[in-house]
Every structure is written in structure tokens, then in C-alpha cells.
Task: inverse folding
């Protein structure tokens, strides 16, 4: 059957790889957490003792109860199988420490829209801008403006994202007091679909969004420029020019179109990586997304929450690359041909 | 072909196209004169590196740095829709003003068709876009036209829906020929379109080109180093050496009785069609560098019949008898 349907074989192979990789990464993350020297139950009991000013016997039923709650009872193997089952069959990631007993998946769901909106929209804006600017820089590659643009982009792409974020906070936030630097909206407005709230959300998103856009824009400009400069040297571009097509058509249907493929794949992968990548920005701006949740989880060694975020990251990275791999043969005839032969 | 009353289509006058290099100007096309007549197949012959591709990229206004058109004229008699002729100097046009002449009046078959097709567009789309850019044909008419042209070059209509990677080298070359004739241009420039192909395919394609010329009444400027191809295809032939034209005449005349000593050596060395690029025998010395052409006649260091004047004065391309031009002091 596979002999006659190489595309089907390719799809099946990719999906199996997807499942196996997610399972493998899950397993590694699980055991890494269990191998860490710090004991989450100990930390939890200590925080209870502090909170209620009592002394709790480490062998007491209360400790056993919490062990069960957090899935820490039984052998390591039992814990692993139970956690695997709860995660992938019951979609239950266990209770969180930072907000006990709210289940981790509920925390994640509450945070997810903020991260998706801030990161997703910023990355998309950076991508579109980067593609257009990069294409223009390639088209006018002999002009000095293009040269300067390229040099500035090279410098910008070398600056760590958090430095740019810190600069924005300090300069535009604290010194000039132009934009708010903390949170996602002003607490004086009720949360909901009202104009004040939306305005406040947009206003608060300007600095963190700028930080993300500036840091990724340079990369997109550079990669698009070099891609298109290469394409402009191809024989088929000279041929398109000989055919007397309009410069606009040559730029769009011949140059940009051929660059769009790899760049779209790049966008999909970036979207997958953004959860893990933008942690620092959310922490810096105290933005109520997954990154900020992660930093709070780390402080109290809330391994259920941390595991939850890690699983979600693995899942989104893998899903993004799976989507890329599954759509590539659909949109690029060359890759389809490669698979078929 | 009734060659007596052929009108001029393209005249090149004192054309200079140079490459700016670190070691100075490389004069790849050096004071070249040429006239192409409407309706003929003109063969441009000459060894590798003598400037053939540089010349035609210049005529098509596709010269890219470091190459640049230093001076010269390219007077072209473009036919307009109203049946009138419009005379332009292609080299004086603004880059944008050249566009209406592209493909409608001058089309092109590239030296290698391997990479000239956009890998992500279907064959049909890549021919349709040129139709859209230069004519008011409807989509239906365009599709029919593309199908006809593909069949004219011996391809199936189905090729229209294929991508470049689904085509063999010969098929790609045929697609570029089909694309070149789709708007029935005045002039079709073919730069060694068959060198990358095997001999049998080459023969068939040459025959097809001849047929197409008969059917559509095109003018073809056919460029190749291969004299055997010119013998089969060209009505007239021009011999190029060191960036200039050495001799022009009816192909049969030039082949049977070459006048210029360089043409004589070239004709003696003719192998079978599609044969190896053989070194021209009986010619001492190496091809000179375009960075530093010999003074006087550029051919004099290798010429068996050199006269004293050859080292000092460059001979003009003169008409010796009707239709027979030669640039050599032996005949002046
Ligand atoms: N980019 C360049 N820079 C400098 N000199 C160049 C460049 N390209 C070509 N030349 C020179 O220009 C001359 C003519 O090259 P051209 O490609 O026009 O030759 P050709 O007659 O088409 O040869 P072929 O039969 O191999 O295609 C050559 O001597 C070559 O050295
Ligand atoms: Mg050439």
C-alpha cells in the first residue's frame, strides 16, 4: 500500500514521529523533575507551617494526604504511569501549589489567551514588517539606505531581547513615563468587553509588544533580504525581466512568492517556540501570561505548574513543526516530488 | 526566402559593452557593427568568450554590473499594432521604457533553460503572465495560444499544467521556445539554446525552429559557436572575434569561400553537428584577453597573412561585394 501511496507513508511517518517525540520529551521532563534534589512535599509542608504557625509531623496523615494530592505517592514507576495517564487521557495536570487546589490546566487556560494574543500578534506584525522591509532592502540592495538598514538589523539582531526590553522599560516607561510598564490592564476598569478595558489592554501591550517586535523584526529583515537577494540572482528572475513583466509582478510573483515558502515555515516554528522563548519579557512586564506563571512556579518549586507549562511548550513546538511538515508538500510542488520519488 | 527586398530590422553601430574589473575595463564587445534583416535567420558565430552573450544581453537591455554599455546604437524597427514601423534606439530608452518592446518585439531563448523557469509556478502561468503583460488576449485565448505553441515545439498540451521539476532538460528548452514565440515577436534571440542537449534532440529542435520561422515569419538571431549548426539553420552568418564582427555573408558563401583568415580557420575546423568544441587548428597563439586587445586588427598576432598595417590600424567592416562584408586589410 505504501508503495503506491508515498505521500500517505510520509504523513503517517510524520505523525508517528510527532507522537513518539512528545512522549519522549514528556518522559525526560518527568524524570528530570523527580531527580532534582529539592523535595516539593517538604517545601509545601514548610510553607503550610509558616502560614498557620504550626509544627507538622513529617510522618503524619496530613503529609500522606498531600502526597496523594500531588501524585507523589507510590513508586516512581507508579507515579509516572499515573501522571502519563492523567495528562493524556484525563487532560488533568494535577493541583497547583501556587493556587492550591486549582488544577494546573485551569491556570494555564486562564493565562494562555494573554500569551497567545501578545506574542502571537507581535510576532505576526514583526513577520509581515520584516518580510516587506527585507524585500525592499533586497530590491534596492545597491542603495545606501538598504546598506544602513542591513547594518542596523545585524546589530539589533545581536542584542539579547531582554536588554531591549529593559531599555524600553527604563527609558520609555520610567524616565519618560510614556507607557505603563507593569501588568496587562489598569485595575480601575472592569474586565470585559468594554472600551475602557480594551483601550487599557492595548495601551499596556505597547511596551512588551514593541520589545518582541524589535527583537524579532531584525531577524526577519535579514533572512528575507538574503533569501530574496539570492532569488534575484537566479536565472528565472533575469528571464522574468526579459519577458517585460512589471517590476511589481517580478517582485511579488517571482521573488517574494519564492521566499514566502521558507518564511512561512519559519513563522510557524517561531509561533511554536514563543512560549518558551518569551519568558523573560513577561516576567519583566509582569504580564499575566504563561511566562510570568512559570516564574512564580519556579519560586515555590511548584512542579505541577512547571511540568504543565513545559508539556504545553513541547506540545506547541511539536504541533507547529508537524503542521509545517504536513503542509509543505501541499504548497511546494518540489517537495511533493521529492517525497513521491 | 526572397532576400533581395528584405528590410532592416536591427542595426548595431559601434557598440561597446565593457566589464569593469579590478584590472581595468574588459572590452568584451568592442566597436561592433551588425545589421539584421527582417525575416532572416541570422547566425552569430564565434569561439567561446568572444562576447556573444554579452552582446545579446546588451541588445535586450539586460546588461548587469559590472558590465555596462559604454557607447553605441541599437536601431530597432519595431512593428506596431497599426501595422506601422517605429524606429527606436534600444540603448537610449529608459529602463522602464524598454518594457513594452520586450517579448512583443524581442523575445529570447536563454543559453541554458535549466533554471529559467520559476520552480513554484506552472508552465502555463509563466507563459500566461507575459501574454497578460503585453496583449489584451482573454484568458481563454491565452490558454489556447499556449497550447498551440507547446504543440508547435513538439510538446503535449498537458505540459502547460506541469512544474519545471517535472520536465526534462529538452522539454524545458522547448518550453522556452514555446514561450518565445507566443506573442509572435519581430525578433527572436536564441543564445546557444541547444548546447546543453544531446545531439538528436538538438537536431529535432533545430528543425522545429526552421518550421516555426516559416510559419510565423519571425526573424531569428541564432547564436552558437557551432558552425555545423549555422550550416543547417542560418540564412546569413556573422563571424565574431574579439568583440567585433570579422565577416558577414550568406551562410553558403561564407562556408564555401571564407574571406577573413579567421573565418578560414573556423570553417576548416567544422566538426559534425553537435560535435566537440574542437580547438581551432592552424591558429598559433592563444585567444587574446579582452582586458588588452592587440592594437590594430585584434586578430593580427595569430594571422598567417598579416600585413604591416594590421598592427597599426583596425580594419573597418566593408562591403566587398553585395551582401558580403569583411573587416580585413587584405581586401581594403
Ligand atoms: N562578470 C564578468 N566580469 C568580467 N569579465 C567578464 C564577465 N563575464 C564575462 N566576461 C568576459 O567577457 C567576455 C565575453 O563573455 P561572453 O559570455 O559574452 O562570451 P560568449 O561568446 O557568450 O561565450 P560562450 O560561447 O562561452 O557562451 C569573456 O572574455 C569573459 O571573460
Ligand atoms: Mg554565451
Result:
Amino acid at each position: 500500500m505504501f508503495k503506491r501511496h508515498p505521500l500517505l507513508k510520509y504523513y503517517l511517518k510524520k505523525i508517528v514521529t510527532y507522537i513518539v517525540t512528545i512522549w519522549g520529551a514528556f518522559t525526560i521532563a518527568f524524570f528530570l523533575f523527580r531527580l532534582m534534589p529539592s523535595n516539593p512535599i517538604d517545601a509545601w509542608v514548610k510553607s503550610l507551617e509558616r502560614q498557620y504557625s504550626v509544627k507538622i509531623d513529617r510522618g503524619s496523615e496530613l503529609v500522606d494526604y498531600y502526597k496523594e494530592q500531588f501524585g507523589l505517592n507510590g513508586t516512581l514507576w507508579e507515579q509516572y504511569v499515573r501522571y502519563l495517564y492523567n495528562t493524556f487521557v484525563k487532560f488533568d495536570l494535577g493541583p497547583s501549589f501556587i493556587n492550591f487546589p486549582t488544577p494546573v490546566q485551569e491556570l494555564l487556560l486562564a493565562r494562555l489567551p494573554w500569551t497567545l494574543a501578545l506574542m502571537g500578534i507581535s510576532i505576526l506584525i514583526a513577520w509581515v514588517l520584516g518580510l516587506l522591509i527585507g524585500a525592499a532592502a533586497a530590491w534596492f540592495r545597491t542603495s545606501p539606505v538598504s546598506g544602513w538598514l542591513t547594518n542596523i538589523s545585524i546589530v539589533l539582531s545581536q542584542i539579547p531581547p531582554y536588554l531591549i526590553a529593559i531599555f524600553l522599560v527604563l527609558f520609555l516607561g520610567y524616565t519618560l513615563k510614556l507607557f505603563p510598564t507593569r501588568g496587562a490592564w489598569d485595575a480601575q476598569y472592569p474586565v470585559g468587553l468594554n472600551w475602557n478595558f480594551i483601550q487599557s489592554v492595548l495601551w499596556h501591550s505597547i511596551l512588551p509588544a514593541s520589545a518582541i517586535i524589535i527583537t524579532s523584526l531584525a531577524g526577519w529583515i535579514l533572512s528575507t533580504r538574503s533569501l530574496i537577494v539570492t532569488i534575484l540572482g537566479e536565472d528565472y528572475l533575469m528571464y522574468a525581466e526579459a519577458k517585460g513583466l512589471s517590476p511589481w509582478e517580478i517582485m511579488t510573483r517571482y521573488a517574494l512568492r519564492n521566499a514566502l515558502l521558507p518564511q512561512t515555515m519559519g513563522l510557524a516554528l517561531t509561533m511554536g517556540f514563543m512560549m518558551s522563548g518569551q519568558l523573560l519579557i513577561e516576567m519583566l512586564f509582569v504580564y499575566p501570561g504563561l511566562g510570568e506563571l512559570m516564574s512564580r512556579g519556579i519560586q515555590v518549586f511548584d512542579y505541577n505548574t512547571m511540568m504543565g507549562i513545559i508539556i504545553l511548550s513541547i506540545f506547541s513546538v511539536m504541533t507547529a513543526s508537524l503542521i509545517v511538515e504536513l503542509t509543505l508538500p501541499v504548497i511546494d510542488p518540489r517537495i511533493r516530488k521529492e517525497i513521491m520519488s | 526566402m526572397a532576400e533581395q527586398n528584405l528590410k532592416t530590422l536591427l542595426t548595431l553601430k559601434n557598440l561597446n559593452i565593457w566589464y569593469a574589473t579590478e584590472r581595468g575595463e574588459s572590452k568584451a564587445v568592442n566597436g561592433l557593427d551588425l545589421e539584421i534583416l527582417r525575416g532572416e535567420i541570422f547566425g552569430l558565430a564565434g569561439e567561446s568568450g568572444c562576447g556573444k552573450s554579452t552582446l545579446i544581453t546588451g541588445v535586450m537591455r539586460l546588461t548587469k554590473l559590472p558590465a555596462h554599455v559604454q557607447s553605441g546604437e541599437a536601431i530597432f524597427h519595431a512593428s506596431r499594432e497599426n501595422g506601422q514601423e517605429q524606429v527606436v534606439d534600444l540603448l537610449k530608452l529608459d529602463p522602464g521604457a524598454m518594457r513594452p518592446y520586450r517579448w512583443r518585439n524581442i523575445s529570447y531563448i536563454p543559453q541554458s533553460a535549466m533554471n529559467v523557469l520559476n520552480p513554484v509556478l506552472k508552465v502555463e502561468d509563466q507563459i500566461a503572465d507575459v501574454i497578460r503583460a503585453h496583449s489584451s488576449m482573454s484568458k481563454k485565448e491565452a490558454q489556447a495560444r499556449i497550447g498551440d505553441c507547446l504543440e508547435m515545439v513538439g510538446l503535449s498540451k498537458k505540459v502547460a499544467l506541469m512544474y519545471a521539476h517535472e520536465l526534462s532538460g529538452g522539454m524545458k528548452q522547448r518550453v522556452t521556445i514555446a514561450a518565445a514565440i507566443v506573442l509572435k515577436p519581430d525578433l527572436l534571440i536564441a543564445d546557444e539554446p541547444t548546447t546543453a542537449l544531446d545531439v538528436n534532440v538538438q537536431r529535432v529542435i533545430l528543425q522545429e525552429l526552421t518550421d516555426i520561422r516559416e510559419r510565423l515569419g519571425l526573424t531569428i538571431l541564432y547564436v552558437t559557436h557551432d558552425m555545423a549548426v549555422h550550416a543547417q539553420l542560418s540564412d546569413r552568418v556573422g563571424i565574431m572575434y574579439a568583440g567585433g564582427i570579422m565577416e558577414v555573408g550568406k551562410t553558403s558563401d561564407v562556408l564555401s569561400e571564407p574571406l577573413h583568415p579567421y573565418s578560414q580557420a573556423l570553417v576548416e575546423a567544422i566538426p559534425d553537428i553537435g560535435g566537440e568544441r574542437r580547438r581551432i587548428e592552424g591558429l598559433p597563439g592563444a585567444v587574446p584577453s579582452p582586458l588588452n586587445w592587440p592594437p590594430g586588427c585584434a586578430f593580427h598576432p595569430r594571422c598567417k597573412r598579416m600585413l604591416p598595417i594590421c598592427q597599426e590600424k583596425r580594419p573597418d567592416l566593408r562591403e566587398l561585394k553585395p551582401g558580403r562584408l569583411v573587416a580585413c586589410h587584405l581586401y581594403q
